[in-house]
Design a protein that fits this description.
single chain, mainly alpha, two-stranded antiparallel ribbon
């Protein structure tokens, strides 16, 4: 990694991955909100979308984690202490790792619950038969990680607001984009 970036900026690849991840995750969250409120006999298309968006988010997370390790490392904006900036980045890293874990657990939960996992209109081969013994722990873990990433997002936003008030770090850096 090089430190050739201007302070408070990130490169175009990280910016693009950030926006794609933000949009994909927002669509997945909208799906998560609608899915349980839909009649059971009408859920199949929403479940297919949920599974597909989960794989899309997973692919983007893997790309972002790769770029996190290989791409240029952003430097804190002027006036923001490095420790404060690094704490914010650590929260984002924990969020990315949580998304990755969620995407690994999700298909096993789906296979154990309903026996199929959708992917862009088709179903993946079944790796396991529906199983109550697997469904229960995978379901609880899938839900727990969902609440965990909501907590991480809340902490990240609150800490970002604190950084804005305390250090005048700017609010634009709380959204995907070149500013960090």
């Amino acid at each position: 990694m090089t430190n050739s970036l201007q302070a408070g900026r990130q490169d175009r690849t990280a910016t693009l991955l950030g926006w794609l991840l933000f949009i994909s995750f927002a669509a997945l969250m909208a799906n998560i909100i609608v899915l349980p409120r839909t009649a059971l006999d009408q859920r199949a298309p929403l479940q297919m979308l949920h599974d597909t968006l989960g794989f899309v988010v997973f692919a983007l997370v893997l790309a972002r984690l790769y770029w996190w390790l290989r791409g240029p490392k952003p430097q804190p904006p002027a006036g923001l202490p490095p420790a404060s900036f690094n704490f914010n980045r650590a929260i984002l890293l924990a969020l990315l790792l949580t998304f990755a874990a969620e995407a690994i657990i999700g298909p096993f939960y789906a296979w154990s619950e309903r026996g199929n996992v959708g992917f862009f209109g088709a179903y993946l081969p079944d790796l396991m038969q529906p199983s109550e013994g697997v469904r229960v722990p995978m379901g609880y873990l899938h839900s727990t990680l969902g609440f965990y990433y909501l907590m991480l997002i809340t902490i990240w936003l609150c800490f970002g607001l604190y950084q804005h008030v305390r250090y005048r770090a700017g609010l634009r850096r709380l959204f995907p984009g070149a500013a960090v």
